[in-house]
Amino acid sequence: MTQTHKQTIEHLQSEISRGLFLKNNRVDLNLCLSKNRHIAENREVLRVIIEVIFFAARQNIALRGHSENVSSDNRGNFLELVKLMSHHNSTLQYHLEKINSNNHNRLTFMSHESQKKLLLIIAEIIRSVIVKRLKAAGLFSVIIDATTDVASLEQFCFIVRYVHEGNIEERLLSLVTASNATGKGLYNTFCNITEMYQIDWKTKLCAQSYDGAAAMQGEYLGLRSYI
What we know:
2 domains; Zinc finger MYM-type protein 1-like; DUF4371; 4 strands; about 230 residues; single chain; alpha+beta
């Protein structure tokens, strides 16, 4: 009797339905699908946030505001731009709703630390393009300036000029704190930058430009004389 039942159409259809049900309701598959969906959502959120940071950096506007509290009328360029973008992106909108809810997750991609890390990554990518073009150009020149900031630290500005596809490009390559404001100290900073980006300045540097400070233009102890 049991063997006969197993051969009936009804039983076979039931077995097929059971197999499909089990296939579609496997815990491991559902967990995998949920994880992949979560990853895709995070990538979409991060994509928009990177666009906002890149836009603010390119327009030379500050990211953070005076007050970033939820009750503030103006929470700063970054948060306000993200809010604006969420009006046209449902994934980002849902992400912001989770953050603002009582049970929000800790992974927001919007903290000050996240903004700083993303800016550094973007800067490094741009810097790598500059170095690649500079090396491809062959010869290049430098414009160097140093100034003391409010903390009495010497800020060393390193700008390069080169020709790319027939056009002159002038790009800021590095802005770092010099070890000291003497010609030797500035020269050490210059060497550190060129070594970091593997720039062959000894054979490729064709021109130099500085301000009138003795540490820069000094005939014997200035940066110009060391180079």
